[in-house]
Amino acid sequence: xxxxxxxxxxxxxxxxxxxxxxxxxxxxxxxxxxxxxxxxxxxxxxxxxxxxxxxxxxxxxxxxxxxxxxxxxxxxxxxxxxxxxxxxxxxxxxxxxxxxxxxxxxxxxxxxxxxxxxxxxxxxxxxxxxxxxxxxxxxxxxxxxxxxxxxxxxxxxxxxxxxxxxxxxxxxxxxxxxxxxxxxxxxxxxxxxxxxxxxxxxxxxxxxxxxxxxxxxxxxxxxxxxxxxxxxxxxxxxxxxxxxxxxxxxx
Length: 251
Known about the structure:
This protein is mainly alpha-helical. The protein contains 16 helices and two strands. It has two domains: 1-123, no CATH class; 162-251, no CATH class. 59% of the residues lie in helices and 2% in strands. Helix 5 (70-79) packs across helix 7 and helix 8 (125-134) runs parallel beside helix 10 (149-156). The longest helix has 18 residues, at 233-250. The protein starts with a helix and ends with a helix.
C-alpha cells in the first residue's frame, strides 16, 4: 500500500467513513467475495455488472445472487451470449423476452418472464449509456431510438456493431438526424454501396451528405431517385443533373 492510500484508509477508519468502492480495479478474488457476500447492496452488484459484463464466469456468479435486481439482470442478459441467456433462464427460472414477442431464451419452469423492453425503461441514463456501448444486438436495436444523444450515439460506438445493423439504421426514418449524420460521415461504413444507397433514399439524411454520394450511384438508382418524392427536392434535382451530364458525355 502506497503512502497516500495508507493515509486515506487511516482517515476513513478514524472518522468511520467508507472509501468509494472501485470495482474496476478489484482483483478477481475480491470481486467474488463482494458478489458472494449476501450483505452487498444491489447497487454495488449493478456496478460490477456494468464494468465486468464480458466476464461470463463472473456474471454466472452474479446471476446467482439473490439480491440482484431485475434491471441489472436485464443488463446482463442484453450484453450476454446466447449461452449466457440460457444460463439466466435456467438459474433464475425466467423467460427472457423482448416486449410481447417470442422468447429470447429457454422458458422458465414456472413461466415467469423477464420483460427486457419494460426493464430498459427503468434503467438510469448511466445504465443505458453503458448498455449502448456494450450491449448485444437486441439492446442496440432498442437504444438507437432513444432521444438522448449520449445513448443513441453510444450504440454507434459499440465494437460489436455490424455493417448489417448500420445499413438497417441508415434506412430507418424514425432515428434522429444526428444518428444518420454520424453514419454518413463514417468513412468505413460508407465504403459499402448499400449503406450509401440507404442514406441517399432516407429523407432524414442531411442534404449535404446525400449530395456527396450521388456520383457513386449507378444510373438506374439515379433515375429512381430523380422521381422519388420521399427525398428532398435538391437531391432529386442533383440526380437529374448528373443523368443529363452523363447523357451529354455519351453523345
